[in-house]
């Protein structure tokens, strides 16, 4: 008890001394407070600057606003493309990610069961495109091999893509009035389950509503369902009387094929998707949440998850096929050329990494 009283007395004496000093030197006290506030302000500013320096950002390229010494090889390639296609625009996506760290995360390692990137088991690719860890181990259906860091670097380096053959890997997957046409869609969908004017109209409508490239929607549906389609894209008998459609396989979960189909059909029935057109229009909003709304709005960014809008990286990646964005991009480019809209006002999002060789 005495110790407690003693400590209180000491505290009271200290307070009295401080009050006395302030009364005697009020200007000094004000200066001290001001210095403390300034110091706090400086610390907060430094913290904000550090956070901002690490924050990914998008900058519209104007022909001059890229540091060629820090990011070599980009400018001349972009300028060449822009010279050939004056209506095209380019957005520089500063990932703020170190190139070597990115490759290390995309590459295979001992603590990862399944590789993020696979290549076909084919003599078309060099021997050193197989990763050292699993070399000849087969994955998926037995025709795929683990991709090496060298292969990943080759496919991920934006400077290998900034050319007319591959640039559509970077095309922003948004709807552009007049750029995506029914004629173009007929080229993609001919001979597929999506063939026909009604479906083309539905794809255009869905693209407008979701601000999504209809060519991309059609290409992805055909890739998912095959050209002839599957049970849910050709129409599924539900509750004996109703035929429903669910080409995106939304809600298709379960422990058996019958259960999976029934759950997908139930979802479609509850949504009123009794035609393929309705299912396409209704399903787009749901599907775009997986990638587009997370900032993964190019074929490249869907394959390589380098967008940290959800504070996660290398997780939300579409397909293990390392070459998927290249083949899909070639298809899209062919469609744009066939519909004579390749020189429309298209935008391309170009990833930029730190410390590239």
Notable characteristics:
single chain, mainly alpha, three-stranded mixed sheet, three-stranded antiparallel sheet
Q: End-to-end span in angstroms?
A: 71 Å
Total helices: the number is: 13
Indicate the percent of residues in helices.
40-55%
What letter string, H or E per element, gives the SSE order? HHEHEHEEEHHHHHEEHHHHE
Shape by Cα distribution: globular
DSSP, total strands: 8
Rg result: 29 Å
**What can be said about the biggest beta sheet?**
3 strands, mixed
Numbering strands along the chain, what is their spatial order in the largest sheet?
1-2-8
How much of the sequence is in beta strands? 5-15%
Structural class: mainly alpha
Q: Mean of the pLDDT scores? A: 88
Low-confidence runs (pLDDT<50, min 5 residues)?
Answer: none
Give the SSE layout:
Elements: H1 2-24, H2 26-54, E1 57-60, H3 74-84, E2 89-98, H4 99-106, E3 118-120, E4 138-139, E5 144-146, H5 149-156, H6 182-189, H7 197-210, H8 214-225, H9 231-234, E6 236-238, E7 242-244, H10 257-271, H11 276-288, H12 299-303, H13 324-338, E8 347-354
Parallel strand pairs: 2-8
Antiparallel strand pairs: 1-2, 3-5, 4-5, 6-7
Helix pairs in contact: 1-2, 6-7, 6-8, 7-8, 7-11, 8-13
Describe this structure in words.
The chain has 357 residues and is mainly alpha-helical. The chain has helices spanning 2-24, 26-54, 74-84, 99-106, 149-156, 182-189, 197-210, 214-225, 231-234, 257-271, 276-288, 299-303, 324-338; strands spanning 57-60, 89-98, 118-120, 138-139, 144-146, 236-238, 242-244, 347-354. A three-stranded mixed β-sheet has the order 1-2-8. Strand 6 (236-238) and strand 7 form a beta hairpin. Helix 6 runs parallel beside helix 8, helix 7 (197-210) packs across helix 8 and helix 7 (197-210) packs parallel to helix 11. The N and C termini lie far apart (71 Å). The model has no long low-confidence stretch (mean pLDDT 88).
